[in-house]
Amino acid sequence: MIFCIPCSMLLIIFGIIGLFFPKYRPFVKEAWKCFVNKLMMRKCEASFDTKVKASLVAYFMKRGNMKMAKFVNKYFNIIVTIFGIIIVVVSIYLTYLFVKWIILGQSPCTAEEATCKIEI
Amino acid sequence: MNPERIREDFPVLRKQNVIYFDNACTTLKPQQVIDAVMNYYENYSSCAGRSVHKLAKETEEKFEEVRNKVSKFIGAKREEIVFTKNTTEAINLIAYSLGFKKGDKVVTTILEHHSALLPFQLLVKKGIINLEFVYPNDEAEFNLKSWKEKIDKNTKLVVIHHTSNVFGSNPPLKEIIKIAHENGAFVLVDAAQGVPHYEVNVKKLDCDFLAFSSHKMLGPTGVGCLYGKYHALEQLEPFILGGNTIKEVKVNNFKLDEPPYKFEAGIQNYAGVIGLGAALDYLRKIGMKNVEKYEKSLSEYLMESLNSIDEIKIYGPKEFKRRCALVSFNISSFNPHEIAMILDKTSNIAVRSGMFCAQPALEYFGAINGAVRASLYIYNTKEEIDIFVGQLKKILEVMK
C-alpha cells in the first residue's frame, strides 16, 4: 500500500490547511478521491499526487531553479511524507496546547520569562 | 497561406498567449465563427422548418445554406447530409439504425476511437453481431491482406477511421472500401480527424457513410455531420423521433419524412450549424489543399525536432509523409500527465495526455499509462514547435 502514502499525506496536509484556508478545501476532496481510488486499485487518469508534484516541479522550473525542480521530482514522495508527519505532530501538539489553555485558563507565563513553560 | 495572418483571427491566441497543440481534441474558433453564432442569437434567433415569420425563414435559410456548404465541402449532395450532435452521435445512429440481424459481422480495427467501438461492442453484448478486428503493423498501418481475410459475405459493416486520432496515420481507405463493397458490406468512415485536415471527397472515396464534427474544424461544439449515400440513408430507421421527422401523424400511425429530415428530430442546434457554415467558409477561403500542405510541413518539422530527443518513443508511422501533424509519444517511462501539466504550467503549452479515448490502441502499442499527444493545425507555427521541443528537453533534464 506504499503507493497510497503520498495521497494520504496530501489528504492530511490539505485537511489541516483547509481548516484555516477555505481555498484549499477542494483539494481535500480531490486528495480523498485519489486516496480511495488508489486503495481500491482503481485506475485514474491523473492522480492528485501527480498533479501536486507536477505543479511543484513546474513552479521551480519556471523560476529557473532546475536543481530544486530536479530535487522535488526525485524526492517528492519523501518530502510529502516528512511534511505530512511534521504537520501531524505539530497539529497534535498545538491541539494539546489549545486544550490545555481552555482547561487551565491563562498560561502560567510571566512577563519576565522568555518562553512559556507548559507542565504536562 | 500565412499563419501569422490567420493567428490574428483567433481571440484565444491573442488573449491567452497559449501554444495550442490540442487540436485533435477541439480546435480554437476564429472571430468569424464567433460572430456568426452571435449574429444568430442577436438578430434572428428562432427555429427553422416550423414557423412562417421572417425570423424563422431567415434561420431556415441559413441552416439549409450550411447543409449546401457541407455537401460541397465533401463532394456530396445536400440531401445526403444529416446534422447530428457530433461524430459520436453519427456513428451511434448507424449502429442503432442499420438493422443488424443475428449473425451479421462488423469489421473494424483496434485503432478506433471509443465512440466507433463501444456502440458495436454493445451490439455484441446483446448477442446481435460478431465484431472482428484487423490489427495494424508496428507503425499503426494496415496491409490489405488482413482486410481481405476479415471481410466476407457475412460482413454487414466495415468501420474505419480516416485518420487515427492517436497515430495520425491514414489507412488505405479506397482499397478497403473496394474490398467491402465486393462483399456487399457498407462502409462507415470516422473522419473526425480527416475532414478538418484533408480534402475529402466522398464520391471519390465511395464510402457509404462518413461522420465528422464541427468543433474539430474551427466550428462550434455540439454539431456533427453524417454523410450517407441517399439510398443507404433511405434504408436506415431513425433512432430518435420527434418534430420535423415526419410528414404526417395520425393517432395510430405516422409517415416518416425523407432523409435527411427523418433523422433530425426536434429543435436543432441552429447557432452551432450556422457557426459551422462560417468555419467552412473560413477553411474554403484558405483552401484544403493549402491546409494539407501546410500541415505536412509542420508534421515534418515536428517529427524532425522530436526525433532529436533520444529518450522519446513516437508511436505511429516514422515518416512524416505518412501521417498528419499529430504525434503521440512518451519520454522514457515518465508519466504523460506530468509532462502535459508541466508543459502547461511552465510554458502555457496545451497538449493532451492519457488514452485519447482509444485505450485498446495505446495498450496494443505498450503505452499502458497513455501518452502525450501534440496535434497541430493551421494557426500553429514552427516557432511554437521550437518552444515545445525546447521545453520537453528541459523537462527531460529535470526528470532524468
What are the main properties of this structure?
heterodimer; A: 120 residues; mainly alpha; 4 helices; globular; B: 400 residues; alpha/beta; seven-stranded mixed β-sheet; four-stranded antiparallel β-sheet; 15 helices
Provide a descriptive summary of the structure in words.
- The complex is a heterodimer of chains A (120) and B (400).
- Helices cover 71% and strands 0% of the residues of chain A.
- Chain A is mainly alpha-helical and 120 residues long.
- The longest helix of chain A is centred in the C-terminal third of the chain and has 39 residues, at 66-104.
- Chain A is globular, with a radius of gyration of 19 Å.
- Chain A starts with a helix and ends in a 16-residue tail after the last helix.
- Chain B is α/β, with parallel strands linked by helices.
- Chain B is 42% helix and 17% strand.
- Chain B has 15 helices and 15 strands.
- In chain B, the strands form four sheets. Chain B has a seven-stranded mixed β-sheet, sandwiched between helices. In chain B, strands 11-12-15-14 form a four-stranded antiparallel β-sheet, with helices on one face.
- In chain B, helix 9 (202-205) links the parallel strand 6 (186-190) and strand 7.
- Chain B is globular, with a radius of gyration of 22 Å.
- The two termini of chain B are 40 Å apart.
- The model of chain B has no long low-confidence stretch (mean pLDDT 95).
The largest pleated sheet of chain A is described as: none
Largest sheet of chain B: 7 strands, mixed
Counted by DSSP, the helix tally of chain B is 15
> Could you tell me the mean pLDDT of chain A?
80
